Fold these 2 entries.
Entry 1:
Amino acid sequence: MITHENQIDSWIEEAEQSGEVAIDTETTSLDAHQANLVGISLSTKIGKACYIPIGHKSKGCLKKEIVIKKLKPLFEDKSVKKIGQNIKFDFIVLYKHGIAMSSMEDTMLMSYVLDAGKNRHNMDMLSQIHLGHKTISFKEIVGTGKKEINFSDVEINKAMHYAAEDADITYRLYKIFSKNLKLEKLLNIYEIFEKPLIKILAFMEIEGIKIDNKSLKVLSEKFEKKIKKLEKEIFKISKKEFNIASPKQLGEVIYNELKIAGIKKTRKGSFATSANVLEDLAFKGHKFPQLILDWRQVSKLKNTYSDSLPEHINPNTKRVHTSFLLAATTTGRLASSDPNLQNIPIKSEDGKDIRKAFIAEKGNILISADYNQIEMRILADLADVKELKKAFKNDEDIHSLTASQVFNVDIKKVDQDMRRKAKAINFGIIYGISQYGLAKQINVSNHEAEEFLNAYFFKFPEIKIYMDKTIKFCRKTGYVNNIFGRRSHFTGINDKNFNIRNFQERAAINAPIQGSASEIMRLAMIRLDKKLKSLIKNELKILLQIHDELIFEVPEKEVKNMTKIIKEEMSSVTSSDLHSFSTPLTVDLNIGNNWGILH
DNA sequence: TTTTTCACG
DNA sequence: ACGTACGTGAAAAAG
């Protein structure tokens, strides 16, 4: 326990000496964007850590300004590695307290590179797995539910044991993972694809995006009216009121009271009421299921978006700050949470209205830039599919080409329906297709779907070879590699359960495709960031990443210059230290004062 | 805490 | 005979 500011000096000295220090911050909130510092822990040797209390309500804290002034030079010293667990969080908190941390290492990301798909990467889990030690959990310290207290109300000694342990464990994990990354030859992946993203994402999150509170409120009212109207119609048919949102009650009404169809159950034995099932029933001419579908769509938009998004507006910045998760997926993709800004509606008209509420600041413009058909291009490259590569080089419409191959007609004779089916086949291929899945998707018989696939694999034999090879490799090693060398693990690939095994096989086929695409986006973000830093004055801000798309905000007068730079940097990510890519990448750009008209 | 549903790429 | 498209996060119900 640091009880006097002068005690910090020896810790700083040790950190400067060794060039490494594990750090952890304790704060008033798990949301980095509104968190205030409560304490900082440091570890410079295994088994040795300290806690600097700053913002506890009880006695014994040091003055925040003095602690920050002392630690700032160390945290900003490029020659000393700052090691953290999910250090993007600490970076954001410290940045808001006037410290721009440099030379960051992250044990969460190291674990992710080593073990994606094997386990989660939170510290409690990592400590248990790699050190056989059960850590003091956050919940043990702050309690849960109604009894939950703020960290600033935690008694100082209790906080010390918890926080100092975290720094100590982080340092221990760092030592283990450093060794393992070298042994497994995965250090490159960590250095090239993970570390640079920490700061880039931190600044995207800090920047946030503006939303139009008023128009969302108007939308909510409009949705509410629609919901009320649909409810009236629904209850008129059911002849009683019930909770439409309850699958249990809804199933009871559909199958036992109205007897619209023979009882259909889910895998787990409850009534089947998913959109797929309801669409089938609606197709058979029933009015009721369609009303339910409509009700669900509007309720979803209201509950999840128009009602919720305004609650995420930060009172200080008046903008919405998502959190990008770097270690959530098996494939290398990012995820977004609190709120998730990677699943904002676009498909329905009502949905698009939600998007329109994401706006540029006055005088600014939003730019969207997305990779055209990136996963199909990856597949062409990954499986070395001659016909596909040629098509992309000639800038052909890939779904029309597929249609002409599968249905054996001239590309000029491909009609809407053929193209739609071919598109479904292409998607299916990326997901590790089954004839059953395809048949369901495009509403043809199993037999027909099988013939389509046979024709497809006959025309593109390299794809079948790729699929078989990938599964074989995965069965042997337990993982697959993407084109840059990132691993995704599939622990159930040899499971004795047929369903589990099949599921894992499809995931294993998909992972290198989805994963390589996400790597290209990571490289694009890193390139762009570097380019923007090289400009004398940079006013282009990256706000969001939605897997194959980036959203930017920029002053109006800069739009022309910046679109050029964006396109140039994104489409030239065709090689890295780890792979060179022989299929061209094309980027589509759109501009507007809101996100709704960017497509 | 788990299950179901549904929004996105 | 069985039951499947791949990857996510959030809301609501129900245990």
Entry 2:
Amino acid sequence: MVTFDRRWLPLNALRAFDAVGRHLSFTAAAHALGVSQSAVSRHVIGLEELLGHALFERRPQSLVLTKAGGALLPTVRGSFDRIEHALNDVVRDGGGLRTLRLQLPPSFAQKLALPILQAFRKDFPDIFIDFSSLGITGAPRTETDVAVIYDRPRTGEAVSDLLWMSRVTPGCSPALAAAHQGKTLERFIADNELLHVKLEGEPPGIIWQAFSRHFGLGVRTSRGLAFDTAALAAQYAASGEGVALLDRDLFATDIAAGTLVTPFAETFEDGYGYFLHLSADDLADPVIAVFRGWMIRNFARGVPS
Amino acid sequence: MVTFDRRWLPLNALRAFDAVGRHLSFTAAAHALGVSQSAVSRHVIGLEELLGHALFERRPQSLVLTKAGGALLPTVRGSFDRIEHALNDVVRDGGGLRTLRLQLPPSFAQKLALPILQAFRKDFPDIFIDFSSLGITGAPRTETDVAVIYDRPRTGEAVSDLLWMSRVTPGCSPALAAAHQGKTLERFIADNELLHVKLEGEPPGIIWQAFSRHFGLGVRTSRGLAFDTAALAAQYAASGEGVALLDRDLFATDIAAGTLVTPFAETFEDGYGYFLHLSADDLADPVIAVFRGWMIRNFARGVPS
DNA sequence: CGCGATAATGCCTTATCGGCATGAGCCGAT
DNA sequence: ATCGGCTCATGCCGATAAGGCATTATCGCG
């Protein structure tokens, strides 16, 4: 029995096999490869002898893959596809700056884009990040490689990696907190304007409602103002005009800087989180895989700032 | 400028490039490939001319990849790795039965393993599933391709695909439900034994506690019995000895059969879910990718039965 | 039954691949 | 400085595998 290693990969034969598997015809494959039918025939036969298994079942009218052929073909085809693309990429731009298109939700972009992009560029100066913002929820809109989305865990064939689960707590300006010093959480909320963040497909106020229900607060939550993004709500809260439910990690810098305060210990996991979202096929692209790994590792050490 | 297609993939040159990239030395690469240094040198030079970009920077003492080389190498190496493995797989067993090792949590295995395995085997008769349960006592099998785990959404480099989020509701035997006919949810829970499922890293009773808090029930939840698996708790509940929080999807067949009833409309999403868990690298294996896609598509149409 | 498909095969040509020997830089030790 | 040892590049040549052409075998179809 032969075992294969790098020194002896029957590459030309594999290319012939790939073409035949694609066209399911020796003649057509030969034509596609620009060689004669006999050459292709030889290659495939040689490969079959090497493997000790037939790759195609020759039928009078048609050619069909054997189990062995079926097992081999997807790998071979995928590999050649990737090599082909990689070669053309290099020819085109010398592999100089691979650009990775990234979409971020607005609040995330506003708070974290800079530290992330700077840190990533430091580690991978040759990967150019073309980044754009998108709506707060939902799937990425345009052609993009990787997107961060704010969503609940969802099913789907796309690869979806959790960066962190959102954990919210009431936040407001220091002045407002001081003015209501000593009040209970329930009283504090009842006495102040509530700032909501709109979420696609959810009724407004749902997060405040879930929050108050979770902590058993008897307050009416369907009042106040609603904003498109968390960052806007936070900004409004910082001006002293109300209290918003803030993601502690997302607004860590504001809290540290003192422009926002979180007077209560109660934090609530609302089932939403920030996910890195990309197509399963794209994971085969080393640049995208590298970026994914880098993001996951970085956020595992806590949300950057 | 040349553009590459299948007909002119310089495969032998790429193999040489891969080896040189691995060893960062023409001589060492030549030795590893079992050919002379000159052959390797020619190949790399030829490839560089084809691409119009240098792949290595020749320095007196050392060889370093150029940007173009760095962009190309991971793809080429990964592709050859996969081809090498695929070829050896075929040699070994003719690609006949690719076996995929699958691990399932006990309750999941008990309720869903059969329908899933049967349906999958019908669609892919050539993939043999070697499935094992994450037994309570069973030694954790590290050698596995894909696992279903019951967990909260977590961060990590492994690819984690949500199958469905757990949604629980009180369930008990029909007799017990009849005996307490007409009671409110609060009363019903207060008057019956509570059956818990133990979760690693969580205090016992946490789900009942979250459930009652979510619906504003004033009942004590830290009482009753705790079980290792949801299936055990459900079985106990079916015997009429208490009320358990059941995942509606997981126990759909029991509910349909009437051995368990869920007398209340209140369902609660507890933040846990069933995830398909696999290594990011493994996604390059067509068999594993196929299984992943199949599972995701199937569960998207609802939990099988 | 012959015609038109297909893939397999024998024979021959070719050019790709690779080996050997050598050359050209560069480094460090004597 | 010079020489030996190391690296990769190159000229030349031979082996061989890759491929072309023409033919054969097999099957389906009109």
